[in-house]
Design brief:
The chain is elongated and about 85 Å long. It is 0% helix and 65% strand. The protein has strands at 20-46, 49-75, 84-110, 113-130, 134-143, 146-155, 175-186, 191-202, 215-224, 232-234, 244-248, 252-257. Strand 3 (84-110) and strand 4 form a beta hairpin. The protein has no helices and 12 strands. The protein is mainly β.
Length: 258
């Protein structure tokens, strides 16, 4: 897997948070498969005997992962740069299973005859353990139904990883990721839409001396509240206040709407 898990930011991504501690838990499952076929031919001489070699290599890989993510965060009540600051970290524990099968078939042709050959083999591997640690910080701003957010996160490569192993939970290299997005949340109509754009810079894997390129990712989500009781009004504050403050239960706090 790459550093970024698609869908990490979904509906209500930029909506204000409840100040204080929060704990988010995520179950993540992925199942992938890939395959390829390469054909080659070569002519050469052994002594003075011409030889023609043809071969076909076929390989297929199947992998699945079941991961549990736990994200404790703390949201500050005091504004930072006019926004709501949240800091936290993501821990990962789970299991990955990988299998690789391959076959080689071909023929060795000479004036004396043809010698066919073939070979098939498979290997499999699995690992259970902890993944990398991902610190994360976000800033959110609210302006009526419009909500904005910027974030920065990264990867501390302390998870289960071995470049000689077929299955891994850690990605084996550091990474830094940053981006921002928008949430439209209208408590009168129950409409909600969120979109988040981010970029990942990957550092070199010191075990393989390989460096991934820059990854761009876009997550989005849309929802519609089906009950009219989507917000709970709180008493207006201040002398002569003409607006009311609203809470979306369990989702956001202290968002002012006229």
């Amino acid at each position: 897997m790459s550093f970024w898990l698609p869908g990490f930011f979904g509906s209500l991504a930029a909506a204000p948070q409840q100040p204080g501690w929060s704990l988010t838990s995520i179950y993540y499952h992925t199942s992938v498969s890939a395959g390829g076929n390469v054909a080659a031919a070569r002519e050469f001489e052994t002594g003075r005997i011409p030889v023609n070699l043809t071969a076909s290599v076929n390989a297929s890989l199947n992998a699945k992962a079941d991961l549990g993510l736990v994200m404790p965060t703390y949201t500050f009540a005091t504004p930072v740069f006019g926004g709501q600051l949240t800091v936290g970290a993501i821990g990962i524990y789970g299991r990955t299973d990988t299998s690789l099968t391959g076959s080689v078939t071909g023929a060795l042709s000479t004036p004396l005859g043809t010698l066919p050959f073939s070979r098939f083999d498979s290997i499999s591997d699995s690992v259970t353990g902890f993944g990398d640690v991902l610190p994360i910080a976000t800033l959110r701003w609210n302006n009526g139904v419009h909500n904005y957010m910027t974030y920065i996160t990264g990867d501390i490569p302390v998870g289960a990883y071995d470049s000689t192993r077929l299955s891994n939970i850690g990605i084996g290299h550091s990474a830094i990721d940053a981006g921002g997005g928008y949430t439209y949340l209208n408590p009168q109509t129950g409409h909600e839409f969120s979109g988040m754009l981010g970029f990942t810079y990957n550092f070199t894997n010191q075990s393989t001396q390989y460096q991934n390129g820059v990854d761009m990712h876009f997550d989005w989500g849309a929802s519609q509240f089906l009950t009219k009781q989507i917000v709970t009004p709180a008493p207006a504050t201040g002398s002569g206040a003409s607006s009311r403050r609203w809470w979306v239960p369990g989702l956001s706090s202290d968002s002012s709407f006229p």
